[in-house]
Amino acid sequence: MKLKSLAIALAAISTSLHMSAQYAPAGDKIKTEWASKIDVENVWNEYPRPIMERADWMNLNGLWDYAIAKKNAVRPSKFDGDILVPFAVESSLSGVGRTLKADEALWYAREFTIPSKWKNKRVLLHFGAVDWQADVWVNNVKVGSHTGGYTPFCFDITSALKSGSNSLEVRVLDSTDAGFQPRGKQVSKPEGIWYTPVSGIWQTVWLEPVADTYISDLKILPDIDSNTLSVDVKKSSCDADIVATVQVKENGEVVAEGRSVNNSRVEVAMPDDVKLWSPDSPFLYDLEVTIAKKGKIIDKVTGYAAMRKYSIAKDRDGIMRFQLNNKFLFHFGTLDQGWWPDGLYTAPSYEAMIYDIDKQKEWGYNMIRKHIKVEPATWYTHCDRVGMIVWQDMPSGEQCCPWQNRSYFQGTEFQRSPESEANYRKEWREIIDCLYSYPCIAMWIPFNEAWGQFKTVEITNWTKQYDPSRIVNSASGGNFFNCGDVLDLHNYPAPEMYLFDSYRANVLGEYGGIGFPIKGHLWAADRNWGYIQYNSIKEVTDEYIKYGEQLLKLIKRGFTGAVYTQTTDVEIEVNGIMTYDRKVIKMDEPRIKEINDRICHSLDHLND
Q: What is this structure's pTM?
């Protein structure tokens, strides 16, 4: 028995060494320090959905077989090699580094075995995100399809499973800019501010055992004015006599509790000494949520919630300002695109991903504008934990950008096909649904710089109705309509206020773009771009502080939020505070923190 166990262990070690030996990043582009630490046996092993966690799960990240074939071809009879999941096929860290064309299909395959302790459980197969269309087979049984490159999805694969080894195949189609799909900055021919395509699996793939009736989602809504926490406990079926219970905990102790019978919504009265969430004090309550039938608990998840409120109100001079928890607060952060030289949409590791957030917190910002991309759930959870407000963009698609004039008011809107419009609405709703419960998200931005902008009033009003708890910025940078909560100007490089709306909050949604190319840290040594360029840390910092002083004057005139472009260099853009490989910080950190702190606290006097 011992010899058999030893043989199995040696075989596992041999397989592991073989897998590691045959993997290597593709290409010779610059890379982050985390790229050298990649372990193919332990890739993105963090629990992928911390706001609703179960104790048992299985990570399917790692080396899979892959093949690229013609779009309409049958399953490939042989594979091209290995691909490291969850990195897009075009990325270096995938080990492939090849662009998927619009007339091609990307196939993935691997084997997995269900643990014996999952017997008599239903099994869910989860994908964090796949760009763009995914068709999935388990043991040659098609278990489902999904379109949309930015949101998680799952399939119940129980009926397709068998004992022992199971096969999993995924086919991906991605037309990038040849179709109508939301794609952000991806283009088939990268140049300027347009970047390398991202195709295929780019977030964690995982399995989860659940009961026959299980908690399928949580929709969490705090109300600090009534001191209540609403938790909509969504279930997989409509069984009668299901009791949902929500316990709110602090330091392991239950401080509030609520339950409902045959009703998904649980209303919890919070304690009188409730702690509020803010950038300066990002307090999170732990949640334990159960559903029970006939007194027996049939499912349990853990998560967290925060008591906070985003709103807009007039100050003493009649200017509309942002408020957090009924107090005025200036939102100040960076344009954060979330791109990586080695992983493209996917950071090399969790540690790499949160490094960007932590640096922005260290620099004194209280907000991040997540620019035309959606991040993994763990990104938003880290923002919740450290107290970073998020403005969330809808990833753009279709044509860019029919600006009419500098005022951009009620210009010509883009005419989408019925198929394109239906897809936009579907993906936008899915994005809001999957991010709804994260306390950090303050604002939804359905359109950026008129890119693919259509039916602005209708889309804005729908967004506001669907989630009235958040601010809606209908058109960041124009084309503006009289709807939503925000008038959002873009101006490069220096801050400028060339429009003002007395009925809405006024923000500078983009400015800056100070370029500084640093040799040895460039995506393309012979090409780099920025709105303006300097040649030293001092020059860049001086210019940044000059813009900060100008912004402080404009805050007095009415701005209530601002976004500096940008967190890092991205491909040939060199206007980041950090280089693309995150190895050099291109500004004097103490100096930018000092001006950033002044800006973030510029409205504090209104709360006296």
A: 0.95
* C-alpha distances in Å from residue 60, one per residue of 204, 345, 515, 529: 7, 19, 40, 39
Distance CA 126, CA 169 (A): 13
Query: Are the C-beta atoms of 477 and 510 separated by less than 8 Å?
Result: yes
What is the Cα Rg of the chain in Å? 25
Q: Please count the other Cβ atoms lying within 10 Å of the Cβ belonging to residue 15.
A: 11
Q: What is the β-pairing status of strands 228-235 and 310-314?
A: unpaired
Quote the Cα angle for 214-217-223, to 5°: 130
Instruction: For the chain, list the domains and their CATH numbers.
Output: 25-210 (2.60.120.260), 215-305 (2.60.40.10), 331-607 (3.20.20.80)
pLDDT tens sequence across 282-322: 999 999 999 999 999 999 999 999 999 999 999 999 999 99
Q: Is 265 helix (H, G, I), strand (E, B) or coil?
A: strand
Query: What is the spatial distance between Cα 127 and Cα 588, in angstroms, rounded to a whole number?
Result: 40
- 398 alpha carbon, distance to own chain's centre: 21
pLDDT average, residue stretch 263-269: 92
Please, are residues 331 and 366 in contact by the beta-carbon 8 Å criterion? yes
Name beta bridge partners: 243: 261, 292
Tell me, what DSSP letter sits at residue 33? G
Q: Is the CB of residue 302 less than 8 Å from the CB of residue 254?
A: no
Is 1's pLDDT higher than 50? no
